[in-house]
């Protein structure tokens, strides 16, 4: 299969199309970014912060210039309080050892409640060859608490993934390994690579609680010095994110004999599979049935949103190992996946993602902005899902964007799937996308609205068409000029809701039709036979839909123009 675009020779192999060539069709990955190319990757320091930011009850100290501390302060859109040695030119020339010693001591005096200190090594400290490990050892014995170096200077490795490894090593050596050995804690699990974004961990915890399981330690969504010291006694390590949890799970299996299981709680199928596998491990009965019921219930809850998403094209570009499970989740929403890419995914991540992609889907490793722009223009997704760095690119191109890890509600578990469906539907229906069209869509493709046409919409909340014609107590009347809404007025119905059967005596539908006599069309959830007949006599079109108001207006104009609706129907 041919490449869709020409790429720089150095990038050959990083961009592939899914085909049946197996391993050969996977993109080249885990390699340094081409010098001079501005990719979407972050440095190892940021990778370490990504993994450790949520560790409670420790001081996070960045040993480096203040700019690094600024970079490390905000993780997953949340601002964390951090300390820094604020290395300056003088320190870089004469060394920053003393400054680091003083800063550790001062930070502990200011926060005596802190159970430990994490010292992040930056490029500047790494380049001058500071022996941070020795200083941390010394400080640890003086202050009587773990002071752990995180060896993550930005230049080490090829991207933030190497910072995850440095972070995992710091936790293992200085916190988990310090715990006392003891008997295995019954019905207990650790979750490695779970950051409790917007309550994801609580969703997972509720599901595991149904199986009678307790979480000893979640790294790092719920990691404390105390629970990390007990983590070595858990019965099972659940690896939720491969890139941040796998290395720890491997070491813990080797050192403490804790078995591991790689699962995902994103999407219905993956959540179901995860719970069944964990249930089997702990010999629980009835899990299959319970899981099946939950899947059915979640599908039912998500159903109102799914018809809006069916067939919409989605492109995903984020971290690493969630690429595959999220790709599946979007497919379960009925969306067509046209691109799956990652900043620092490994071969196994692409292999896993490839399994749930169709032939011809683009696989993209460590994309730069130019490539992303080109692919978005050519593949024309209805939605791009990515990290915060891709957000502004998408918006500039007029493409709806969903940030992941998410910023609103949990996406993990069965409830998370429903949240995902709802939020994607609302995002795609947002009125702004009627005004800001993707750069590749030209004007003539849009319905042309006649001048000063009035359309009445039966909507209670102003967002969706959600009211029956007869039951409507008010209508929003839009005066349209070209593609713009010139005026919106609310027209209240005298006497409130009525229906064809008992409404004749109260002037139904005559009074309602009189109220809307200057309108060309009425958009409502449904309308009775008599209302339709009388409306037709008066030359008023009735269109039934449950769409968002802007989409419904577009469809209605198509109908007025005799073009048929976007779903192919004519009423
Ligand atoms: S790349 Fe180096 S200098 Fe830049 S933020 Fe990361 S650690 Fe600091």
UniProtKB/TrEMBL annotation:
Q: Keyword set for this entry?
A: Nitrogen fixation
Q: Which InterPro entries match?
A: Di-Nase_FeMo-co_biosynth, DiNase_FeMo-co_biosyn_sf, Nase/OxRdtase_comp1, Nase_comp1_CS, NifE-like
Q: Which domain of life is it from?
A: Bacteria
- The record places domain Nitrogenase/oxidoreductase component at 43-427
- Gene Ontology MF terms: nitrogenase activity
Residue ranges of the Dinitrogenase iron-molybdenum cofactor biosynthesis domain? 462-554
| Signal sequence range | none
Transmembrane stretches in the record are none
Return the similarity comment: Belongs to the NifD/NifK/NifE/NifN family.
PANTHER family from the xrefs? NITROGENASE IRON-MOLYBDENUM COFACTOR BIOSYNTHESIS PROTEIN NIFE
Q: What is the protein named?
A: Nitrogenase
């Amino acid at each position: 299969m041919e490449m869709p675009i020409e790429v720089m020779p150095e990038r050959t192999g990083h961009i592939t199309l899914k085909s049946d060539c197996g391993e050969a069709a996977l993109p080249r990955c885990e390699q340094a970014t081409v010098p001079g190319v501005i990719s979407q990757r972050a440095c190892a320091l940021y990778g370490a912060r990504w993994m450790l930011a949520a560790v409670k009850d420790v001081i996070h100290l960045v040993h480096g210039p203040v700019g690094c501390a600024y970079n490390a302060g905000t993780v997953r859109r949340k601002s964390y309080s951090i300390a820094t040695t604020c290395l300056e030119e003088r320190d870089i020339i004469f060394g920053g050892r003393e400054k680091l010693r003083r800063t550790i001591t001062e930070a502990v005096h200011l926060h005596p409640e802190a159970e430990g200190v994490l010292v992040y090594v930056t490029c500047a400290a790494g380049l001058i060859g500071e022996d941070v490990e020795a200083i941390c050892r010394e400080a640890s014995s003086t202050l009587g608490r773990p002071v752990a170096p995180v060896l993550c200077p930005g230049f080490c490795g090829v991207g933030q993934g190497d910072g995850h490894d440095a972070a995992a090593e710091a936790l293992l050596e200085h916190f988990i390994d310090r715990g006392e050995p003891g008997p295995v804690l019954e019905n207990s699990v650790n979750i490695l690579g779970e950051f409790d974004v917007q309550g994801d961990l609580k969703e997972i915890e509720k599901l595991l609680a149904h199986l009678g399981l307790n979480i000893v330690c979640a790294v790092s969504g719920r990691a404390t010095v105390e629970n990390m010291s007990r983590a070595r006694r858990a019965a099972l390590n659940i690896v939720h994110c491969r890139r941040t949890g796998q290395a720890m799970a491997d070491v813990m299996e080797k050192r403490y004999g804790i078995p591991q299981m790689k699962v995902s709680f994103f999407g219905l199928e993956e959540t179901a599979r995860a719970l069944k596998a964990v249930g089997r491990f702990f010999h629980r009965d009835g899990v299959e049935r319970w899981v099946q019921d939950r899947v059915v219930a979640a599908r039912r809850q998500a159903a109102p949103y799914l018809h809006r998403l069916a067939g919409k094209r989605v492109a995903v570009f984020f971290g690493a190992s969630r690429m595959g499970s999220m790709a599946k989740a979007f497919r379960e929403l009925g969306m067509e996946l046209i691109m799956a890419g990652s900043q620092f995914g490994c071969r196994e991540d692409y292999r896993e993602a490839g399994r749930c992609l169709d032939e011809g889907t683009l696989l993209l490793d460590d994309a730069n902005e130019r490539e992303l722009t080109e692919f978005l223009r050519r593949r024309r997704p209805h939605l791009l899902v990515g990290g915060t760095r891709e957000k502004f690119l998408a918006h500039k191109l007029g493409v709806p964007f969903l940030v992941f890890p998410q910023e609103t509600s949990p996406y993990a578990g069965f409830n998370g799937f429903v949240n995902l469906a709802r939020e994607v539907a609302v995002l795609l229906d947002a009125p702004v996308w009627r005004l800001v069209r993707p750069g590749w869509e030209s004007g003539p493709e849009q319905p042309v609205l006649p001048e000063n046409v009035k359309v009445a919409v039966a909507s209670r909340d102003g967002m969706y068409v959600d009211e029956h014609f007869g039951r409507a107590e008010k209508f929003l009347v839009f005066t349209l000029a070209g593609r713009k809404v010139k005026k919106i007025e609310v027209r209240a119905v005298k006497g409130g809701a009525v229906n064809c059967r008992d409404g004749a005596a109260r002037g139904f539908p005559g009074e309602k039709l009189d109220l809307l006599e200057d309108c060309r069309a009425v958009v409502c959830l449904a309308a009775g036979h008599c209302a339709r007949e009388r409306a037709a006599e008066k030359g008023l079109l009735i269109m039934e839909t449950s769409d968002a108001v802007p989409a419904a207006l577009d469809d209605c104009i198509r109908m007025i123009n005799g073009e048929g609706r976007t779903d192919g129907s004519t009423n």
